[in-house]
Amino acid sequence: MKIAVRYYTKTGNTKKLAEAVAKAAGTEALPISSPITEPVDVLFLGNSYYAFSIDPEVRKFIQGLDKAKVGKIVNFGSAAMLNSTFKKVKAEADKIGIPMDEREFHCKGEFKGMHKGRPNAEDLKAAAEFAAAIIK
């Protein structure tokens, strides 16, 4: 199974999660500025809420994906106040015909003093276990 991990982060929280996911999947975590150039069965996509939506860069990345090269997207991320970005990511993926796995990983993320230290070691372990369960 061919796996890719891409992420977008402003605070570094999602990068930490992406690195844990990538390690469990036996691949490298790369920012969304690195395009998907080879076919993958699973694209783990890390992102978060910014101003009550996914960042325009994440939307642009999804819109630029080639459905012939991505089997499915698995969403993961963190946020200080809001929960999952799943519905927003799925709406963009649906527009280009890439399926989303219904499972996702989400945890609290530190922002302006809220949720200090998150994602923590326990969150990173949980993200790695989540990734391992997806690809088994």
Helix content: 25-40%
What series of H and E elements makes up the topology?
EHEEEEHEHEH
Number of strands: 7
Q: How widely separated are the two ends? A: 9 Å
Strand content bin: 25-35%
Give the class from helix and strand content and strand pairing. alpha/beta
What would your notes on this structure say?
The protein is α/β, with parallel strands linked by helices and 136 residues long. 35% of the residues lie in helices and 29% in strands. It is built from four helices and seven strands. It has helices at residues 13-25, 56-63, 86-96, 121-135, and strands at 3-7, 29-31, 40-47, 49-50, 53-54, 70-79, 100-108. The longest helix is centred in the last third of the chain and has 15 residues, at 121-135. The radius of gyration is 14 Å and the shape is globular. 40% of the residues are buried. The model has no long low-confidence stretch (mean pLDDT 92).
